[in-house]
Amino acid sequence: MKKFNSARLRFLIMLAVLAVVAVGYFTAGGIGNFCGIGFDTITLLCPLGALLAMIAERTAIPMAVVSVLAVLAVCVVLGKVFCAWACPVHFMARGKKKGKRRASRASGSSVEGGTGSSSVAASSCGAADDPAVSRDAADGPAVAPALHAARTGESAAQAAAPAPERDKSLGMVSRSACSACTAPCGKAKGIKIDSRHGILAAALGSTLVFGFPVFCLICPIGLTFATVLLVMRLFAFGDTTWTVLAFPAIIAIEVLLLPKWCQRFCPLGALLSLFSGLNRTFRPRIDSEKCLLEGRGLSCNLYERACPEGINLHDVAAGETTLNDCSKCRACADVCPEHAITFPFLPNKGRGASASAPVPASVPAAAGGAASASAPASETPVASADGAADGGGAAERG
Question: What is the value of pTM for the model shown?
Answer without folding.
Answer: 0.68
